[in-house]
Design goal:
By secondary structure, this protein is mostly beta strands. It has two helices and 20 strands. Strands 1, 9, 10, 11, 12, 13, 14, 15, 16, 17, 18, 19 and 20 form a 13-stranded antiparallel beta sheet that branches. Strand 6 and strand 7 form a beta hairpin. The longest helix is centred in the first third of the chain and has 11 residues. The two termini are 21 Å apart.
Length: 287
């Protein structure tokens, strides 16, 4: 698959209990394959060679929380979990495979902006979503019924296309979320770039953007920014393709901003605990 130049989101509606399967289905449709040889122990292990065909991307996910409890599919709970593994070798059919990080803990991923593992949202709740998926990543924007009082959630999982270092295999795969992330203004990345010693576990890498102190300006123009990630030791590593952000002022979810011939949808996301991105006001392209 060629590297995308446009990231246009499609819209749909599903039940809260169907979001987990939606993630899997969208990735599989985009070229990922579930290679898990024993789902009861390895859970879902999605693999892809990425948009350039030169990676060994891995997303290891399950429908339960980090303690392996309360499925987001069969219960009203809202927390699934993931692992950014570095390698996975399937076993024979019905036999557990081998992970490179065999003792890696699971990380919580909230499908609703709730503040605690024990907070529930009815499984039959209809959720409006906007989604983009390709052979490298999935970006999922979730919007909840007005009566819930919940603002949107955005989840970013996979390998961005704009990378300024060499990253082989799954080293550049990352996960970011607008609520209950792991480290403020940071995504979790699988590993270091190829020019550095490998890390033993995923780690937080900071996101940044060029944001004004006010939106809009005196002429009614809104400034938006691309989102970059890097660290003081590694400098800039890449850009979160497919998502823009804006200073969260005078914007509402559902607003649309035109940039050239492109139309972007604004989501002012929930502020619950830790935010991975530089701002709660995020934009995705719809036309």
């Amino acid at each position: 698959m060629a590297v995308p130049t446009d990231y246009v989101f499609s819209s749909g509606t599903c039940l809260k209990s169907q979001i987990y399967q939606l993630i899997i289905d969208k990735l599989v449709a985009a070229g990922w394959t579930d290679t898990s040889s024993l789902a009861s122990s390895d859970f879902v292990v999605l693999k892809s060679t990425g948009n350039n065909g030169d990676k060994n991307l891995i997303l290891n996910i399950r429908d339960t929380n980090a303690s392996a409890a309360n499925s987001v599919v069969s219960t009203d709970y809202c927390v699934m979990s993931y692992r950014l593994q570095d390698t996975y070798t399937p076993g024979t059919t019905g036999v557990a495979g081998t992970f490179g990080r065999s003792s890696l803990a699971w990380t919580a991923l909230y499908l609703a902006p709730v503040s605690a593992l024990t907070t529930t949202l009815a499984a039959a709740t209809p959720i409006n979503y906007k989604v983009y998926a390709d052979a490298s990543k999935i970006i999922l924007l979730l919007e909840y019924p007005y009566a819930t009082g919940y603002s949107p959630t955005l989840i970013y999982m996979g390998q961005p296309d704009t990378v300024y270092v060499t990253e082989s295999n799954n080293r550049g795969c990352l996960t970011g979320t607008t609520n209950n992330g792991t480290t403020a203004s940071s995504v979790m990345i699988c590993n270091t770039s190829d020019d550095q010693a490998s890390a033993t576990a995923p780690y937080a890498i900071a996101t940044s953007a060029l944001l004004p102190s006010k939106n809009p300006n005196g002429a009614g123009k809104y400034a938006v920014s691309e989102i970059y990630y890097g660290s003081t030791t590694e400098s800039i590593r890449g850009k979160l393709d497919g998502v823009l952000c804006a200073y969260n002022s005078n914007l509402l979810t559902g607003d649309q901003i035109t940039i050239g011939t492109y139309t972007y949808y604004v989501a002012v996301c929930a502020s619950v605990n830790v935010l991975s991105f530089p701002s709660l006001a995020l934009l995705v392209r719809i036309a």
